[in-house]
Amino acid sequence: MLEREFFARATVDVARDLVGCVLEVDAGTSAHVSARVVEVEAYLGLGDPASHAYRGPTPRAAIMFGEPGHLYVYFSYGVHHCANLVTESRGTAGAVLLRAASVEAGEDTVRLRRGGAVPREALLRGPGNLCRGLGISLLDNGLDVCSGDARLSVSPPASRPRITVSRRVGITAAADRALRFAWDGHAAVSAPRPGREQARRLVGTKKGTG
DNA sequence: TGGACGATTGACT
DNA sequence: GTCAATCGTCCAT
User: Fold this and answer.
1) Which residue stretches of A41-151 are H helix?
2) CB of A51 under 7 A from strand B?
């Protein structure tokens, strides 16, 4: 299991090192799921306009200013949840968004939660789908993944995968920063749909930003 | 207290 | 390629 020191580092370093790690959910129960992280994004806090912590420790973002190694879960678009791991030392905001993972064990449990006919590599692809497949909700917000008795923990990989760095997906602020880390060539990595970014930019002109 | 917006997704044309 | 769903959070009043 990863110790708290792993998370108490620069967010970018934690994000890069998380790719290839294994999420252990509900270990020791019939709902146990193992999933290998294949894609993450770094959110830097006060200096990062795309981060929820950009405006300081609001009630929602306060957890990102707290102890590293905790889970930050938020509800987005009224539809789904997104899960982050808090980084940096206490008092400094930072978090790593879990965007995609590959199911290693407990595939039946994940399929039950996802429903329908989903290809194996797509079961945990996309931040919303990842949370649904792993059963992560607002109830898990604040979970300490380093405590050893939470329903979620993270284990280091046997070997480091090759990683590609690119721009973050689905944001309008600081969109050019290369803070997305993905397992090079892995089938479970998510990708923005063709034309999606362009459409979003056109919508953005409504706000006079263009 | 009201209104705008969003770290997305699935469905439809 | 295009669009609607849906609600918590945050800022302005």
Assistant:
1) 107-114, 127-134
2) yes
